[in-house]
Amino acid sequence: MSDADAEAEPIDVDFGESGLVPAVAQDADSGEVLMLAYVSPEALARTRETGEAHYYSRSREEIWHKGGTSGHTQSVREVRVDCDADTLLYLVDQAGGACHTGHRSCFHRTIDGEHVGERVFDPDEVY
User: Fold this and answer.
1) Measured between alpha carbons, how far apart are the two ends of the chain, in Å?
2) Binding site for Zn(2+): what residues are annotated?
3) Which residues take part in binding Zn(2+) (predicted)?
Protein backbone atom coordinates (compact mmCIF):
# COMPACT_ATOMS: atom_id res chain seq x y z
CA MET A 1 0.00 0.00 0.00
CA SER A 2 1.36 3.46 -0.91
CA ASP A 3 1.38 6.46 1.42
CA ALA A 4 -1.36 8.00 -0.74
CA ASP A 5 -3.63 5.01 -0.03
CA ALA A 6 -3.28 5.35 3.75
CA GLU A 7 -5.94 7.29 5.63
CA ALA A 8 -4.65 10.72 6.65
CA GLU A 9 -4.06 11.34 10.32
CA PRO A 10 -3.06 14.70 11.83
CA ILE A 11 0.65 15.05 12.54
CA ASP A 12 1.87 15.97 16.00
CA VAL A 13 4.53 18.60 15.36
CA ASP A 14 7.62 18.17 17.57
CA PHE A 15 8.25 21.64 19.00
CA GLY A 16 11.11 20.29 21.13
CA GLU A 17 12.56 21.94 24.21
CA SER A 18 12.49 25.44 22.73
CA GLY A 19 8.80 25.28 21.86
CA LEU A 20 9.60 26.48 18.35
CA VAL A 21 10.12 24.91 14.93
CA PRO A 22 11.59 26.48 11.80
CA ALA A 23 9.15 27.22 9.00
CA VAL A 24 10.18 27.85 5.41
CA ALA A 25 7.82 30.05 3.39
CA GLN A 26 7.80 29.07 -0.27
CA ASP A 27 5.87 30.65 -3.14
CA ALA A 28 3.13 28.12 -3.91
CA ASP A 29 3.29 28.73 -7.67
CA SER A 30 6.95 29.40 -8.50
CA GLY A 31 8.63 27.39 -5.74
CA GLU A 32 10.80 30.39 -4.80
CA VAL A 33 11.96 30.23 -1.18
CA LEU A 34 10.86 33.49 0.40
CA MET A 35 11.93 33.33 4.03
CA LEU A 36 12.59 31.23 7.10
CA ALA A 37 11.08 32.05 10.47
CA TYR A 38 10.07 30.23 13.63
CA VAL A 39 6.66 28.99 14.68
CA SER A 40 5.23 28.24 18.12
CA PRO A 41 2.17 26.03 18.67
CA GLU A 42 0.02 29.17 19.03
CA ALA A 43 1.42 30.72 15.83
CA LEU A 44 0.66 27.50 13.95
CA ALA A 45 -2.87 27.45 15.35
CA ARG A 46 -3.45 31.07 14.27
CA THR A 47 -2.09 30.28 10.79
CA ARG A 48 -4.48 27.37 10.45
CA GLU A 49 -7.43 29.39 11.82
CA THR A 50 -6.92 32.50 9.67
CA GLY A 51 -5.27 31.12 6.52
CA GLU A 52 -2.54 33.77 6.84
CA ALA A 53 1.00 33.16 8.05
CA HIS A 54 1.81 33.77 11.70
CA TYR A 55 5.27 33.32 13.17
CA TYR A 56 7.01 33.72 16.51
CA SER A 57 9.50 36.56 16.83
CA ARG A 58 12.39 35.35 18.95
CA SER A 59 13.76 38.88 19.35
CA ARG A 60 10.42 40.39 20.45
CA GLU A 61 9.24 37.16 22.13
CA GLU A 62 5.78 37.42 20.60
CA ILE A 63 3.63 36.07 17.80
CA TRP A 64 3.51 38.19 14.68
CA HIS A 65 1.12 38.18 11.76
CA LYS A 66 3.24 38.34 8.61
CA GLY A 67 2.35 41.61 6.89
CA GLY A 68 0.47 43.00 9.87
CA THR A 69 2.46 46.25 9.61
CA SER A 70 3.52 46.27 5.95
CA GLY A 71 0.42 44.76 4.38
CA HIS A 72 2.68 42.20 2.69
CA THR A 73 0.78 39.18 3.93
CA GLN A 74 1.22 35.50 3.16
CA SER A 75 -1.94 33.61 2.31
CA VAL A 76 -1.17 30.00 3.25
CA ARG A 77 -2.41 27.43 0.77
CA GLU A 78 -0.94 24.44 2.58
CA VAL A 79 1.21 23.59 5.59
CA ARG A 80 3.55 20.64 5.16
CA VAL A 81 5.59 18.84 7.81
CA ASP A 82 8.99 17.23 7.26
CA CYS A 83 9.71 13.56 7.93
CA ASP A 84 10.83 14.20 11.53
CA ALA A 85 7.83 16.48 12.22
CA ASP A 86 10.18 19.23 13.45
CA THR A 87 10.16 21.61 10.47
CA LEU A 88 7.28 23.20 8.58
CA LEU A 89 6.86 24.34 5.01
CA TYR A 90 4.28 27.05 4.32
CA LEU A 91 3.19 27.11 0.67
CA VAL A 92 2.05 30.71 0.28
CA ASP A 93 0.72 33.41 -2.00
CA GLN A 94 2.93 36.37 -1.11
CA ALA A 95 1.48 39.88 -1.33
CA GLY A 96 4.35 42.32 -1.90
CA GLY A 97 7.78 41.50 -0.50
CA ALA A 98 8.55 38.85 2.08
CA CYS A 99 11.70 40.52 3.40
CA HIS A 100 11.76 43.54 5.72
CA THR A 101 14.59 44.93 3.55
CA GLY A 102 12.14 45.44 0.69
CA HIS A 103 13.07 42.35 -1.31
CA ARG A 104 10.67 39.72 -2.58
CA SER A 105 12.76 37.03 -0.83
CA CYS A 106 15.02 37.16 2.20
CA PHE A 107 17.50 35.16 0.12
CA HIS A 108 18.50 38.06 -2.14
CA ARG A 109 22.31 37.76 -1.79
CA THR A 110 24.88 35.12 -2.59
CA ILE A 111 27.48 34.12 0.00
CA ASP A 112 29.94 36.29 -1.98
CA GLY A 113 27.73 39.34 -1.51
CA GLU A 114 26.29 39.47 -5.03
CA HIS A 115 22.80 40.96 -5.14
CA VAL A 116 20.54 38.50 -6.95
CA GLY A 117 17.06 39.38 -5.68
CA GLU A 118 14.35 41.78 -6.67
CA ARG A 119 13.59 44.77 -4.44
CA VAL A 120 9.84 45.31 -4.52
CA PHE A 121 9.28 48.06 -1.93
CA ASP A 122 11.10 50.76 0.01
CA PRO A 123 11.21 49.77 3.69
CA ASP A 124 11.65 53.41 4.77
CA GLU A 125 8.21 54.15 3.32
CA VAL A 126 6.59 51.09 4.96
CA TYR A 127 8.07 50.82 8.46
Assistant:
1) 52
2) 83, 99, 106
3) 83, 99, 106
